[in-house]
C-alpha cells in the first residue's frame, strides 16, 4: 500500500508545470513520475535537479523499471534533459550560471530493452545523446572561432572555467545496430562534456576486432564485468580480446560461457594457444568471478587456471564434462578457501566424481554461499555421502539440486538435517523420483519433469511444507522452480 506522501506526490506530478518544491521532495517526485509514465514531468524535474547525482536504481528500483508504463519514453526523457543541461553549460559561462548542476547520471542496472521493443535500447539512446552533445560542442567552437579569430587571454581563461559536464555510468549492451553509434560516442573520450562510464560490457554478435575497438575506447577506471557469452568465441578470437582486458584494474568478472576452447582434441598449435589464454587470464589481477560454462575443458582445468594471481570467489564450470583430475586440482589449489559461489551443474558424479567432489566441498566449507549441483545424476546414495560435508558448509545460503534422481525420503532427510544451517534460505529441489509415472530406470533429467504425477507431487510438497512449518524456519524457501538459482549474481553475494 502506498504511503500518504507518495499518494500526494502522484497528485502533484499529474499537473504541469510543477509548483516550486523543496529539494528533499525531488526523489519521491521522480519515483512517482516514472511509475506513472510521465516523461515531460521527468524532464522538468531533471532540468532543476538539486543534487550532484541521479541514480536510477536508488530512485526507482529494479522492479519498477519493468512494470512502469512508457518506461522507454521516461528513460529517454531523463537522457534528453541531461543533454539539454550540458548544452546550456556549453553556451553559458560558468560565472554566469546559477544553481547546482547534475554531475553524475547513474543508469547502471537499467535493462537495455524495455516494453518488449526491439528497436529501442538504453545503450543506443545514451550513445546518441553523447554524439549530440559532442556535435553541439564542435558547432559552438566553430562559431566562436569565426566570431573571435585569435582568442584573448581572458577568453582562453573563461573557456578553461567551463563546467566539467556529466559522467553517465551505464551497463552497455552492444549489437550490430548499436556498434556504429557507440563507437562515435566513445571517440571524444574525456574531452567530451557528456562521458560514458561503462560498468558492465556485453557485446552481442559482433566480431572480436569490433569488441577490441570498443574496449580501447572505454574508460579503464569503471569496468567491472565483461560478458562474452553471446559471442561463442574460438581460441584464436579469444586471444585477440584478452590482452585488451588487462588495462581495466577494476575488472572483477569475466564470462566466457559457450567459448569453444576445444581442449578435448588438442593439437600442438591449440596447446600453445591454451597456454597463451592462461597467461592472459593471469594478467587480470582483479579477476574474482570466472564463467567457463560449456567451454569443453574436460581434463584441462589446471591448464586454464594455473596462472591466476589471486583466488576466485565465483566459478561456473557447468556442463564442462569435468574429470576427477579437474576437481582434484581445484580442491588442492588456493581457490576453494575463497570460493563463495560454485556451479558444477551438469557433471555426472556417478563417473568417479563423487569423492573428488566431497573433498572439494570440504575445502570450500568455510566460505561457500552458493552451490549448484543441478543435473548431476545424483542418487540417494550419492547424497548420503555428500550430506555430512554439506552440513559443514555453515555459511551456505543457496543449494541447487534440481533434476537429480532423488526420492521423497532422501529429500525429507536433507530438509530436516539442513535446518541447522542458519543462513540457508533457498533450496531448489528436484521433483522426487517416486512422484513420476515413469520407471526410475527411465530417468532422463530433461524429460522426466514431463512425467510428474501431480497428485503424488502435491502430497510430497505438503510434507515438505509441514516440516518447514514445524521447524519455524519461515525464512527458508524450498521450491522446484529453478529460476531462483539464476537470480543470484556474483556482485550480490
From TrEMBL:
InterPro entries the record matches: LRR_dom_sf, LRRC14/PRAME
Gene Ontology cellular component terms for the protein in this record: cytoplasm
The protein, known as: LRC14 protein
Organism encoding this protein: Copsychus sechellarum
Keywords: Cytoplasm, Leucine-rich repeat, Repeat
Annotated signal sequence range: none
Coiled coil: none
Gene: Lrrc14_6
Compartment list: Cytoplasm
